[in-house]
Protein backbone atom coordinates (compact mmCIF):
# COMPACT_ATOMS: atom_id res chain seq x y z
CA UNK A 1 0.00 0.00 0.00
CA UNK A 2 1.30 3.43 -0.90
CA UNK A 3 1.91 5.53 2.22
CA UNK A 4 -0.14 8.69 2.25
CA UNK A 5 0.32 10.16 5.74
CA UNK A 6 3.74 10.77 7.27
CA UNK A 7 4.23 10.98 11.03
CA UNK A 8 7.70 12.34 11.77
CA UNK A 9 9.21 11.73 15.20
CA UNK A 10 11.78 14.21 16.48
CA UNK A 11 13.74 14.82 19.66
CA UNK A 12 14.52 12.43 22.50
CA UNK A 13 14.13 8.67 22.13
CA UNK A 14 11.84 8.27 25.15
CA UNK A 15 9.47 5.40 25.93
CA UNK A 16 6.49 7.73 25.41
CA UNK A 17 7.31 7.82 21.71
CA UNK A 18 6.40 4.15 21.24
CA UNK A 19 3.39 4.43 23.55
CA UNK A 20 1.94 7.18 21.37
CA UNK A 21 2.70 5.32 18.14
CA UNK A 22 0.99 2.20 19.51
CA UNK A 23 -2.06 4.25 20.48
CA UNK A 24 -2.25 5.80 17.01
CA UNK A 25 -2.23 2.32 15.50
CA UNK A 26 -5.00 1.23 17.84
CA UNK A 27 -7.00 4.33 16.88
CA UNK A 28 -6.56 3.45 13.21
CA UNK A 29 -7.97 0.00 13.95
CA UNK A 30 -10.92 1.63 15.72
CA UNK A 31 -11.44 3.76 12.62
CA UNK A 32 -11.20 0.57 10.54
CA UNK A 33 -8.25 1.94 8.60
CA UNK A 34 -5.07 -0.03 7.78
CA UNK A 35 -2.31 0.46 10.35
CA UNK A 36 0.15 1.19 7.54
CA UNK A 37 -2.02 4.13 6.51
CA UNK A 38 0.36 6.29 8.56
CA UNK A 39 4.06 5.85 7.98
CA UNK A 40 6.25 6.69 10.97
CA UNK A 41 9.49 8.38 9.93
CA UNK A 42 12.25 9.04 12.49
CA UNK A 43 14.37 12.14 12.00
CA UNK A 44 17.33 9.97 10.96
CA UNK A 45 15.36 8.71 7.93
CA UNK A 46 14.04 12.05 6.70
CA UNK A 47 16.38 12.29 3.71
CA UNK A 48 15.48 8.82 2.41
CA UNK A 49 11.80 8.48 3.27
CA UNK A 50 10.14 11.88 3.63
CA UNK A 51 8.04 13.03 0.66
CA UNK A 52 7.29 16.71 0.49
CA UNK A 53 4.16 16.23 -1.63
CA UNK A 54 2.35 14.05 0.94
CA UNK A 55 0.66 15.14 4.20
CA UNK A 56 3.01 15.25 7.17
CA UNK A 57 2.79 15.94 10.89
CA UNK A 58 5.60 15.87 13.43
CA UNK A 59 5.89 15.11 17.13
CA UNK A 60 8.83 16.62 19.00
CA UNK A 61 9.67 14.77 22.21
CA UNK A 62 11.32 17.10 24.70
CA UNK A 63 14.17 16.44 27.08
CA UNK A 64 14.12 17.17 30.82
CA UNK A 65 17.89 17.78 30.69
CA UNK A 66 17.57 20.25 27.78
CA UNK A 67 19.65 17.95 25.60
CA UNK A 68 17.82 18.85 22.39
CA UNK A 69 18.19 16.72 19.28
CA UNK A 70 17.16 17.00 15.61
CA UNK A 71 17.13 20.80 15.61
CA UNK A 72 18.23 21.07 11.96
CA UNK A 73 15.41 18.77 10.82
CA UNK A 74 12.96 20.63 13.05
CA UNK A 75 13.89 23.99 11.53
CA UNK A 76 13.60 22.56 8.01
CA UNK A 77 10.12 21.18 8.69
CA UNK A 78 9.00 24.50 10.18
CA UNK A 79 10.16 26.30 7.03
CA UNK A 80 8.24 23.76 4.94
CA UNK A 81 5.08 24.56 6.90
CA UNK A 82 4.85 21.16 8.60
CA UNK A 83 2.85 21.19 11.82
CA UNK A 84 4.88 20.15 14.87
CA UNK A 85 3.41 19.23 18.26
CA UNK A 86 5.94 19.54 21.12
CA UNK A 87 5.47 17.09 23.98
CA UNK A 88 7.01 17.95 27.34
CA UNK A 89 7.13 16.35 30.78
CA UNK A 90 8.06 18.81 33.53
CA UNK A 91 8.27 22.33 32.11
CA UNK A 92 7.76 23.59 28.57
CA UNK A 93 10.53 26.20 29.03
CA UNK A 94 13.18 23.62 29.97
CA UNK A 95 12.00 20.54 28.04
CA UNK A 96 11.40 22.12 24.61
CA UNK A 97 13.96 23.98 22.42
CA UNK A 98 13.47 27.67 21.69
CA UNK A 99 12.87 27.04 18.00
CA UNK A 100 9.47 25.61 19.05
CA UNK A 101 8.62 28.21 21.66
CA UNK A 102 5.69 29.55 19.58
CA UNK A 103 4.10 26.11 19.09
CA UNK A 104 1.20 24.89 21.20
CA UNK A 105 2.39 21.95 23.27
CA UNK A 106 0.91 19.18 25.39
CA UNK A 107 2.31 17.95 28.69
CA UNK A 108 2.49 14.18 28.52
CA UNK A 109 0.45 12.04 30.89
CA UNK A 110 -1.66 8.91 30.53
CA UNK A 111 -4.77 11.08 30.66
CA UNK A 112 -3.49 13.13 27.71
CA UNK A 113 -2.64 10.14 25.52
CA UNK A 114 -5.93 10.10 23.60
CA UNK A 115 -5.77 13.86 23.17
CA UNK A 116 -2.30 13.65 21.63
CA UNK A 117 -3.26 10.89 19.19
CA UNK A 118 -6.48 12.68 18.27
CA UNK A 119 -4.48 15.79 17.38
CA UNK A 120 -2.48 13.64 14.94
CA UNK A 121 -5.62 12.15 13.41
CA UNK A 122 -7.21 15.59 13.12
CA UNK A 123 -4.10 16.93 11.36
CA UNK A 124 -4.39 14.16 8.76
CA UNK A 125 -8.14 14.81 8.32
CA UNK A 126 -8.85 11.28 9.58
CA UNK A 127 -10.79 12.72 12.49
CA UNK A 128 -12.69 15.96 12.09
CA UNK A 129 -11.10 18.90 13.87
CA UNK A 130 -14.36 20.13 15.39
CA UNK A 131 -14.76 18.66 18.87
CA UNK A 132 -18.45 18.80 19.70
CA UNK A 133 -20.11 17.40 22.82
CA UNK A 134 -23.80 17.42 23.71
CA UNK A 135 -24.85 17.19 27.39
CA UNK A 136 -28.19 15.45 27.93
CA UNK A 137 -29.65 15.71 31.43
CA UNK A 138 -32.74 16.36 33.53
CA UNK A 139 -32.61 19.82 35.06
CA UNK A 140 -34.48 18.83 38.21
CA UNK A 141 -31.88 16.19 39.08
CA UNK A 142 -28.44 17.06 37.70
CA UNK A 143 -28.08 20.76 36.85
CA UNK A 144 -24.97 21.17 39.02
CA UNK A 145 -23.06 18.37 37.31
CA UNK A 146 -24.25 19.47 33.85
CA UNK A 147 -22.87 22.99 34.34
CA UNK A 148 -19.67 21.62 35.86
CA UNK A 149 -19.11 19.36 32.84
CA UNK A 150 -19.94 22.20 30.45
CA UNK A 151 -17.22 24.38 31.99
CA UNK A 152 -14.65 21.56 32.21
CA UNK A 153 -15.13 20.40 28.62
CA UNK A 154 -15.07 23.98 27.31
CA UNK A 155 -11.77 24.51 29.12
CA UNK A 156 -10.53 21.40 27.34
CA UNK A 157 -11.32 22.99 23.95
CA UNK A 158 -14.55 21.13 23.26
CA UNK A 159 -17.50 22.95 21.70
CA UNK A 160 -20.14 21.99 24.27
CA UNK A 161 -23.91 22.16 23.91
CA UNK A 162 -25.91 22.73 27.10
CA UNK A 163 -29.48 23.84 26.63
CA UNK A 164 -29.34 26.64 29.20
CA UNK A 165 -26.10 28.06 27.81
CA UNK A 166 -26.01 27.32 24.07
CA UNK A 167 -29.27 28.49 22.47
CA UNK A 168 -29.56 32.16 21.63
CA UNK A 169 -32.68 34.13 22.46
CA UNK A 170 -35.30 33.97 19.74
CA UNK A 171 -34.08 30.68 18.26
CA UNK A 172 -36.61 27.79 18.04
CA UNK A 173 -35.49 25.79 21.06
CA UNK A 174 -36.28 22.22 20.00
CA UNK A 175 -35.16 22.65 16.37
CA UNK A 176 -31.82 24.04 17.50
CA UNK A 177 -31.41 21.26 20.08
CA UNK A 178 -31.88 18.50 17.46
CA UNK A 179 -29.63 20.39 15.06
CA UNK A 180 -26.81 20.58 17.59
CA UNK A 181 -27.20 16.93 18.57
CA UNK A 182 -26.89 15.91 14.90
CA UNK A 183 -23.60 17.79 14.67
CA UNK A 184 -22.00 16.48 17.87
CA UNK A 185 -19.27 13.84 18.24
CA UNK A 186 -20.28 12.46 21.62
CA UNK A 187 -23.23 12.76 23.99
CA UNK A 188 -22.60 12.88 27.73
CA UNK A 189 -25.82 11.57 29.24
CA UNK A 190 -26.49 12.12 32.94
CA UNK A 191 -28.58 9.06 33.74
CA UNK A 192 -30.38 10.03 36.94
CA UNK A 193 -33.30 8.00 38.34
CA UNK A 194 -35.91 10.21 36.69
CA UNK A 195 -34.11 10.81 33.39
CA UNK A 196 -36.34 8.59 31.26
CA UNK A 197 -39.47 9.90 32.98
CA UNK A 198 -38.95 13.16 31.12
CA UNK A 199 -40.50 13.10 27.64
CA UNK A 200 -37.75 15.23 26.12
CA UNK A 201 -34.92 13.30 27.80
CA UNK A 202 -36.36 10.06 26.44
CA UNK A 203 -36.59 11.69 22.98
CA UNK A 204 -32.94 12.75 23.14
CA UNK A 205 -31.90 9.21 24.06
CA UNK A 206 -33.91 7.73 21.19
CA UNK A 207 -32.52 10.32 18.76
CA UNK A 208 -28.94 9.47 19.76
CA UNK A 209 -29.62 5.79 19.10
CA UNK A 210 -31.25 6.50 15.73
CA UNK A 211 -28.25 8.52 14.55
CA UNK A 212 -25.74 6.12 16.18
CA UNK A 213 -24.05 8.85 18.20
CA UNK A 214 -21.73 7.55 20.91
CA UNK A 215 -22.93 8.06 24.47
CA UNK A 216 -20.81 8.38 27.59
CA UNK A 217 -23.46 7.54 30.16
CA UNK A 218 -22.96 8.64 33.77
CA UNK A 219 -25.17 6.47 35.98
CA UNK A 220 -26.15 7.97 39.34
CA UNK A 221 -25.40 5.96 42.53
CA UNK A 222 -29.09 5.50 43.38
CA UNK A 223 -29.89 4.21 39.91
CA UNK A 224 -29.20 1.09 37.84
CA UNK A 225 -29.06 0.87 34.07
CA UNK A 226 -32.33 -0.48 32.72
CA UNK A 227 -32.71 -2.55 29.57
CA UNK A 228 -33.74 0.51 27.56
CA UNK A 229 -30.56 2.24 28.64
CA UNK A 230 -28.46 -0.62 27.24
CA UNK A 231 -30.01 -0.43 23.80
CA UNK A 232 -27.63 2.26 22.58
CA UNK A 233 -25.40 1.02 19.76
CA UNK A 234 -22.41 2.89 21.16
CA UNK A 235 -22.95 3.33 24.87
CA UNK A 236 -20.12 3.56 27.38
CA UNK A 237 -21.54 3.53 30.94
CA UNK A 238 -19.70 4.87 33.98
CA UNK A 239 -21.32 3.83 37.28
CA UNK A 240 -20.90 6.65 39.76
CA UNK A 241 -20.56 6.07 43.49
CA UNK A 242 -21.31 8.26 46.45
CA UNK A 243 -17.62 9.13 46.74
CA UNK A 244 -17.65 10.64 43.26
CA UNK A 245 -19.77 13.56 44.53
CA UNK A 246 -18.47 16.48 46.55
CA UNK A 247 -21.53 16.73 48.83
CA UNK A 248 -22.48 13.06 48.61
CA UNK A 249 -26.08 14.11 47.98
CA UNK A 250 -26.08 13.61 44.17
CA UNK A 251 -28.98 15.98 43.73
CA UNK A 252 -29.24 18.93 41.32
CA UNK A 253 -26.99 21.07 43.54
CA UNK A 254 -24.21 18.52 43.88
CA UNK A 255 -21.09 18.26 41.71
CA UNK A 256 -18.48 15.63 40.90
CA UNK A 257 -15.00 15.43 42.39
CA UNK A 258 -12.22 16.65 40.14
CA UNK A 259 -10.72 13.18 39.56
CA UNK A 260 -14.02 11.92 38.14
CA UNK A 261 -14.31 14.95 35.85
CA UNK A 262 -10.85 14.12 34.50
CA UNK A 263 -11.88 10.48 33.93
CA UNK A 264 -14.97 11.60 32.02
CA UNK A 265 -12.96 13.90 29.76
CA UNK A 266 -10.56 11.04 28.97
CA UNK A 267 -13.50 8.78 28.07
CA UNK A 268 -15.10 11.46 25.89
CA UNK A 269 -11.84 11.90 24.01
CA UNK A 270 -11.52 8.14 23.57
CA UNK A 271 -15.09 7.66 22.31
CA UNK A 272 -14.75 10.27 19.56
CA UNK A 273 -12.83 8.09 17.08
CA UNK A 274 -14.97 4.99 17.71
CA UNK A 275 -18.13 7.01 17.21
CA UNK A 276 -16.86 8.60 14.00
CA UNK A 277 -16.04 5.18 12.56
CA UNK A 278 -19.50 3.80 13.32
CA UNK A 279 -21.32 6.75 11.78
CA UNK A 280 -19.09 6.73 8.69
CA UNK A 281 -19.68 3.01 8.23
CA UNK A 282 -23.44 3.47 8.51
CA UNK A 283 -23.48 6.25 5.92
CA UNK A 284 -21.21 4.31 3.55
CA UNK A 285 -23.34 1.16 3.84
CA UNK A 286 -26.60 3.01 3.16
CA UNK A 287 -25.18 4.80 0.12
CA UNK A 288 -23.54 1.68 -1.31
CA UNK A 289 -26.70 -0.43 -0.88
CA UNK A 290 -28.78 2.22 -2.62
CA UNK A 291 -26.22 2.46 -5.41
CA UNK A 292 -26.42 -1.30 -6.00
CA UNK A 293 -30.22 -1.12 -6.24
CA UNK A 294 -29.79 1.48 -8.96
CA UNK A 295 -27.13 -0.50 -10.86
CA UNK A 296 -24.38 1.97 -9.99
CA UNK A 297 -20.99 0.49 -9.18
CA UNK A 298 -19.27 2.29 -6.31
CA UNK A 299 -16.08 1.06 -4.66
CA UNK A 300 -15.18 1.53 -1.00
CA UNK A 301 -11.57 2.64 -0.73
CA UNK A 302 -9.26 2.02 2.28
CA UNK A 303 -9.54 5.75 3.03
CA UNK A 304 -13.24 5.11 3.84
CA UNK A 305 -14.45 7.03 0.83
CA UNK A 306 -16.36 5.73 -2.20
CA UNK A 307 -15.34 6.11 -5.83
CA UNK A 308 -17.29 5.64 -9.03
CA UNK A 309 -16.01 5.51 -12.61
CA UNK A 310 -18.94 6.31 -14.88
CA UNK A 311 -19.30 4.87 -18.41
CA UNK A 312 -19.07 8.47 -19.64
CA UNK A 313 -15.52 8.66 -18.31
CA UNK A 314 -16.54 10.84 -15.35
CA UNK A 315 -14.85 10.08 -12.00
CA UNK A 316 -16.77 10.74 -8.78
CA UNK A 317 -15.56 10.62 -5.17
CA UNK A 318 -18.19 10.32 -2.44
CA UNK A 319 -16.94 11.39 0.99
CA UNK A 320 -19.05 10.49 4.06
CA UNK A 321 -19.37 13.63 6.16
CA UNK A 322 -20.40 13.34 9.79
CA UNK A 323 -22.61 16.09 11.16
CA UNK A 324 -23.06 19.27 9.14
CA UNK A 325 -20.81 19.89 6.10
CA UNK A 326 -18.74 23.08 6.31
CA UNK A 327 -16.03 24.81 4.35
CA UNK A 328 -13.45 22.70 6.20
CA UNK A 329 -15.16 19.63 4.78
CA UNK A 330 -14.45 20.99 1.30
CA UNK A 331 -10.79 21.53 2.19
CA UNK A 332 -10.57 17.93 3.39
CA UNK A 333 -12.17 16.83 0.12
CA UNK A 334 -9.46 18.63 -1.87
CA UNK A 335 -6.78 16.72 0.07
CA UNK A 336 -8.47 13.37 -0.61
CA UNK A 337 -8.80 14.28 -4.28
CA UNK A 338 -5.05 14.82 -4.52
CA UNK A 339 -4.28 11.61 -2.61
CA UNK A 340 -6.46 9.56 -4.95
CA UNK A 341 -4.41 10.81 -7.88
CA UNK A 342 -7.32 12.13 -9.95
CA UNK A 343 -6.95 15.17 -12.18
CA UNK A 344 -10.53 15.48 -13.40
CA UNK A 345 -12.99 14.40 -10.73
CA UNK A 346 -16.17 15.63 -9.10
CA UNK A 347 -16.70 15.27 -5.36
CA UNK A 348 -19.90 14.79 -3.38
CA UNK A 349 -19.90 15.20 0.40
CA UNK A 350 -22.64 12.78 1.42
CA UNK A 351 -24.36 13.44 4.75
CA UNK A 352 -27.43 12.63 6.81
CA UNK A 353 -29.70 15.68 6.74
CA UNK A 354 -32.17 14.40 9.35
CA UNK A 355 -32.77 17.02 12.07
CA UNK A 356 -30.50 19.62 10.44
CA UNK A 357 -32.28 22.96 10.47
CA UNK A 358 -33.88 24.21 7.25
CA UNK A 359 -31.91 27.43 7.25
CA UNK A 360 -28.63 25.48 7.19
CA UNK A 361 -29.86 23.11 4.46
CA UNK A 362 -30.81 26.16 2.40
CA UNK A 363 -27.33 27.58 2.98
CA UNK A 364 -25.74 24.35 1.69
CA UNK A 365 -27.95 24.44 -1.40
CA UNK A 366 -26.89 28.02 -2.02
CA UNK A 367 -23.23 26.98 -1.78
CA UNK A 368 -23.90 24.17 -4.27
CA UNK A 369 -25.36 26.67 -6.73
CA UNK A 370 -22.78 29.41 -6.35
CA UNK A 371 -19.38 27.90 -5.57
CA UNK A 372 -17.00 25.21 -6.78
CA UNK A 373 -18.59 23.06 -9.44
CA UNK A 374 -16.49 20.00 -8.64
CA UNK A 375 -17.27 19.86 -4.88
CA UNK A 376 -20.90 19.73 -3.77
CA UNK A 377 -22.94 18.31 -0.91
CA UNK A 378 -25.45 15.48 -1.34
CA UNK A 379 -27.97 14.88 1.45
CA UNK A 380 -29.32 11.47 2.37
CA UNK A 381 -32.88 12.13 1.24
CA UNK A 382 -31.58 12.88 -2.27
CA UNK A 383 -29.42 9.73 -2.63
CA UNK A 384 -32.13 7.92 -4.60
CA UNK A 385 -32.71 10.74 -7.08
CA UNK A 386 -28.98 11.26 -7.63
CA UNK A 387 -28.29 7.56 -8.23
CA UNK A 388 -31.18 7.21 -10.65
CA UNK A 389 -29.60 9.72 -13.01
CA UNK A 390 -28.35 8.15 -16.21
TrEMBL record:
GO biological process, any: signal transduction
Name the SUPFAM superfamilies on file.
Toll/Interleukin receptor TIR domain
Keywords linked to the UniProt accession:
Receptor
UniProt cross-references to PROSITE patterns, sorted A to Z: TIR (PS50104)
Superkingdom of the source species: Bacteria
Entry's Pfam families? TIR_2
Kindly give the InterPro entries that the UniProt entry links to this protein. TIR_dom, Toll_tir_struct_dom_sf
Q: Does the keyword Transmembrane helix apply?
A: no
Domain TIR span(s) in chain numbering = 129-268
By what name is this protein known? Toll/interleukin-1 receptor domain-containing protein
